[in-house]
Amino acid sequence: MRQNTSKNVVVHHATGRTPYKAVFGFLARKEVHNVEATDKDSANTASPVQRKREHEEKDMQRIKLKTYINEKQSSYNSTMKERRKKAPTFHKDDFASIKIES
Fold this sequence. Notes:
By secondary structure, the chain is mostly helical. The chain has two domains: 8-45, no CATH class; 47-81. 65% of the residues lie in helices and 0% in strands.
């Protein structure tokens, strides 16, 4: 398991991304922690204007991601609401149970 994790977080030279990001679309936890650690190291050498710009870019990425997730969730929810409105279809030889209260 540990070896697979280390393989999945190494950037591939042909694709320019990690296999994990290629499959799932986002960085693995291990990558995120590594990126944050390198960001902290580079933050000491970056100018205040550059740090502010990087901060704003990260905020914009978070906003875009939240918007994307909200759109997908609302699309899924509307699809599920439509499915719930439809009457269930029963076919010959389907099993049914009836509860009789006395």
